Amino acid sequence: MNVINSVSYWIATWFRVGLWPKMPGTWGSLMAMPVAALLYLAFGLKGLMISTLIAFILGAITTYFVLFTTIDADPSFIVIDEVVGQWIVLWVAGTDIRFWFLAFLLFRVFDILKPYPIKRIEKYFEDGSQFSKATGIMVDDIVAAGYSIICLWILKIMFT
What we know:
The mean pLDDT is 95. The chain is mainly alpha-helical. It is globular and about 50 Å long. It is built from six helices and no strands. 78% of the residues lie in helices and 0% in strands. The chain has helices at 3-12, 24-67, 80-93, 97-113, 118-126, 130-159.
């Protein structure tokens, strides 16, 4: 395995968290939270947002390279998409730990259930090029994050 593939593998699996047994997406989301907290504390919300954009770009690129090593169109061990989706939901959570917990739960529910149009978006990208597939892996989690944000906003309005 060359350097590009090795680095891509580490980033796409979120430093091998995606290889942990059972529930790789949940582990990826969970292990994204402490890093998000550090980014938020060190650089504020804008820093977390910029880091999310960087993670999205790196995620699409590294997923592209990792997809060449597998026959699966959306391998479960790739969890950088969960990291990006989770960080997006945390943009809305603020500093209240209760809302961070809810952000985690909501994102996991929507990422697992994939309500309309998430499944359709996933399918659309699956039928394209390798880069299209990599982008689709990232984008479906952003849509799940969108659903989560709507619910989190409603909960924040109700309880704050």
